[in-house]
Design brief:
heterodimer; A: alpha/beta; 8-stranded mixed β-sheet; 15 strands; B: 279 residues; 2 strands; 77% helix; 1% strand
């Protein structure tokens, strides 16, 4: 009975999410900024010019490897040879760091997750992208295009690149039976008290909201990033109740990998790359998207409005989602590639199945990171939702 | 050149002003200027969505800081950790410094000073991560601490700042003439009485100097807590999260004034004991 209710709630949430995306993506009559804000007026590039010889890339670790971490892992040098654009890579650790760094105006392109992209669009740090100048855009999975985190009012602000879920991860030798629900991390009576590891970012409040969507339907949460006063309080209280269970919060994936390997933590939220890395070091680890669904990321390469190297930037956008390079990045980082032709280029042919790369049903189960704003993202206009500033304050309070 | 020096020789006040201008400019601009900028920023706020700083004067940040119980808890926790680290370091450092300054041969002294300083040459992160693995569930020093948390943080910080306590005390003890200790003994004082009435009062300024280092460094730390602190956080983490995560520079500035104020109070208290006069 409970299971069916959960599934129903999940379906309801998913369909509503789709509906919300539909309105923002396709309707042309909607006022500018269907997400509740009007982005600054900026024009996309009309035509490519001569490559400028330089490109400053701001990327998640593992997204722009130039052989400095591992001489065999290098897709930046071939790009430099093809285009003559010399690439400088700056890796960032969190979306918030990326937003702060983009404000310096020193970077031409950025790999933004959904919780950063809208902030970058709203502040005018990135500009619309002319997808006609990116030939490989045609092969990008349709279910990744025109989403609320990579476009505003039907205008694309970047090229989808890859996506994945924040997975429920556990030690198979310490956690039995295999958990099928996030309740192992949230239930006050969880047998793994003091051995839980949770993500250290205000955006983690959405994970609690997602759990409440399934377990307390009367709260009426439809989108874990659109929480009114009552829903927000419930999510925050759930996390405060979770705190005694938590051994530590992670923001550095290597630190988390070490904790899982040593058994200081036996269950938690992790990325595929962490799971692969830790398993590679011999720890018996398994991961899955549990019955409630999961939060996740869908990343977009965006062009800085102030960029002085726009031709090189567009060349990069096209190069990084080309089938072969997209496959290399996805394989190295551990995520689903955006390009439909990338799966054929993978060294390990099973990876696209592992990451559900072309499974739009699976993709719709993921609640992608989105910046919470006062205008409710689920379309409600009768209430005010909590913005990211308030999420951050609450996060300090949760940790105590 | 000689004309210039003759000119400055005749005008001592101008000479003094000229000599002091560079350090004063540095102190005024780089140091006090930065502090002033920090304090001013604390009265602004940011746009919730774009993250840009909005220059509007208000006391909202300070109201939040004082009304939310969580910031009080974090402040007390931070001061408690800093105080404990200072006490632990003083207790460990004094006998070590005493042995180095008074008991060791000059050759051994040099070797011991180098040995104390060696950890300073290694990266902070390597040392903190080493403690993380030693205190982990199957680590060698697991019995010291019940998992990651405040205890683990105190242990790690005490280790990290120990040299900053040993070296000032060592310098202070080295300046203490042996003849005073001998005189105390000749007058019939036992070793504890000599320690209490002669050595401790004369080296107290050195201990205070060390405590300023260990206390202020602990007060501002956030990395060790992130590595071995488990779920607990200190003032530094709140500052870091508000810059890194929330991009809320004004509130970070507000929180950052807390350790500054605590240090001012601490220095004032230390000054009243007269310890700073001997530095």
């Amino acid at each position: 009975m409970k299971n069916r209710k959960t599934r129903l709630a999940g379906l309801l949430g998913a369909s509503l999410l789709l509906a919300a995306c539909g309105t923002s993506g396709t309707s042309s009559s909607a006022p500018p900024g269907a997400q509740g804000f009007t982005p600054p007026k900026l024009e996309a590039l009309k035509a490519l010019g001569q490559p400028e010889g330089q490109l400053n890339v701001l990327a998640w670790p593992g997204y722009a490897e130039n052989g400095s971490n591992d001489p065999k892992i290098n897709w930046v040098t071939p790009f430099e040879q093809q285009t003559g654009c010399k690439v400088n890579v700056k890796p960032f650790g969190t979306s918030d760091e990326a937003v702060t760094l983009m404000k310096t105006g020193q970077y031409d392109v950025v790999s933004a997750s959904g919780d950063a992209s809208l902030r970058l669009v709203a502040s005018g740090d990135v500009e619309p992208v002319n997808t006609a100048l990116v030939p490989n855009y045609a092969d990008v999975q349709p279910f990744l295009k025109d989403k609320s985190w990579n476009s505003v009012g039907g205008v694309a602000y970047g090229i989808p690149h890859g996506w994945g879920a924040n997975l429920l991860t556990w030690r198979t030798d310490k956690v039995t039976p295999a958990p099928g629900s996030w309740s192992v991390m949230f239930d006050a009576n969880s047998p793994y008290k003091g051995k839980v590891i949770a993500y250290d970012s205000p955006i983690y409040i959405a994970d609690a909201a997602l759990y409440l969507m399934a377990h307390q339907p009367d709260l009426g949460i439809k989108n874990p990033y659109a929480l009114d006063d009552k829903q927000f309080t419930a999510a925050v209280n759930l996390l405060k109740q979770q705190r005694p269970l938590v051994s530590e919060y992670w923001s550095d994936y290597l630190k988390e990998s070490q904790a899982l390997k040593n058994g200081d933590a036996v269950v938690g939220t992790a990325w595929q790359v962490t799971v692969n890395l830790t398993k590679g070091e011999g720890a018996p680890l398994e991961s899955a998207v549990p019955s409630e669904g999961a939060t996740g990321w869908s990343d977009t390469w965006m062009v800085a409005a102030k960029s002085a190297h726009k031709t090189c930037a567009y060349k990069w956008l096209d190069y990084i989602v080309s089938p072969k390079v997209n496959a290399q990045v996805a394989e190295y980082f551990g995520e689903a590639p955006a390009n439909t032709k990338a799966c054929a280029e993978m060294t390990d042919k099973t990876l696209c199945d592992t990451y559900h790369a072309s499974d739009s049903a699976y993709a719709s189960k993921i609640a992608y990171w989105t910046t919470p704003i006062p205008q409710c993202l689920d379309g409600r206009t009768d209430v005010k939702c909590k913005d990211y500033g308030e999420w951050t304050k609450a996060w300090t309070e949760i940790k105590g | 050149m000689t004309a210039l020096s003759a000119f400055f020789y005749r005008k001592p006040k101008l000479r003094l002003g000229f000599l002091l201008s560079a350090p004063l400019l540095w102190l005024g601009l780089a140091y006090l200027g930065a502090l002033a900028a920090l304090f001013v920023t604390a009265f602004w706020h940011t746009d919730a969505f774009t993250g840009q700083v909005v220059i509007e004067w208000s006391l909202d940040n300070f109201t939040t800081l004082f009304s939310d119980a969580v910031y009080r808890t974090i402040t007390f926790r931070t001061v408690g950790i800093a105080a404990l680290v200072t006490v632990i370091d003083a207790v460990i450092a004094f006998p070590m410094a005493f042995a180095m300054a008074k008991l060791a041969s000059p050759r051994a002294q040099r070797i011991l000073v180098i040995a104390v300083m060696t950890p300073l040459w290694a990266s902070y992160l390597v040392k903190a991560y080493a403690w993380r693995s030693m205190l982990s569930g199957n680590g060698a020093l697991n019995w010291l601490s019940p998992g990651y948390g405040v205890t683990a943080t105190i242990i790690t910080l005490s280790y990290l700042w120990l040299p900053y306590m040993i070296l000032p005390i060592y310098a202070g003890l080295e300046r203490l003439p042996d003849s005073l200790v001998d005189a105390s003994g000749d007058l019939g004082a036992r070793s504890f009485r000599t320690f209490r009435s002669v050595i401790l009062p004369l080296t107290f300024p050195a201990i205070v100097a060390g405590s300023i280092f260990t206390f202020s460094l602990s007060l501002g730390d956030y990395i060790a807590v992130k590595i071995v602190g488990g779920t607990s956080q200190m003032l530094g983490n709140v500052v870091y999260d508000n810059i890194g995560a929330a991009n809320n520079l004004p509130f970070a500035a507000t929180v950052a004034t807390v350790p500054v104020v605590i240090m001012l109070v601490y220095l004032a208290a230390v000054r009243r004991t007269g310890a700073l006069d001997n530095l």
